[in-house]
Specification:
single chain; 131 residues; mainly alpha
Length: 131
């Protein structure tokens, strides 16, 4: 489990840097500042939770339990829903697309998954072995 999460950490971290550079060098030239800030929020939370996923993966060797597994999964799903919805929202605005009203409500679901990940992480540190 921990090696898989470490690989995902590396890929999500690399993607965060790539998307951050994309925002800084390209999006700022085509979007209004508010939309760039929304995109950058997605990048920032992706990087934070990529690093959290890496920490979960490293600490899993010391705390091998279901809570640590769930923490990692919740961080991955949170990145997908929270950051992904912000990227999609920015794409929608950049291309002046109509519709996609479902994108907005997804963002808070991703935030809830982040919170669940942190709570599972706390429980995982509390429980040394699988319960």
């Amino acid at each position: 489990m921990h090696k898989g999460y470490l690989r995902i950490t590396a890929l999500l971290g690399a993607l965060s840097v790539t998307l951050g550079a994309f925002a800084a060098h390209y999006l700022k030239s085509i979007l209004i500042e508010k939309d760039v800030q929304i995109f950058e929020t997605g990048v920032r939370y992706q990087m934070y939770h990529s690093l959290a996923l890496g920490l979960v993966a490293i600490l899993y060797k010391e705390f091998p339990n279901k809570f640590m597994k769930w923490a990692g999964l919740f961080f991955i799903l949170g990145i997908t829903l929270f950051s992904g919805s912000l990227y999609l929202f920015t794409y929608k605005n950049a291309n002046h697309l109509q519709g996609l009203q479902w994108v907005g409500p997804i963002t808070p679901l991703g935030g809830i998954l982040f919170i669940a990940g942190w709570l599972c992480f706390a429980l995982g540190i509390k429980h040394k072995y699988e319960k």
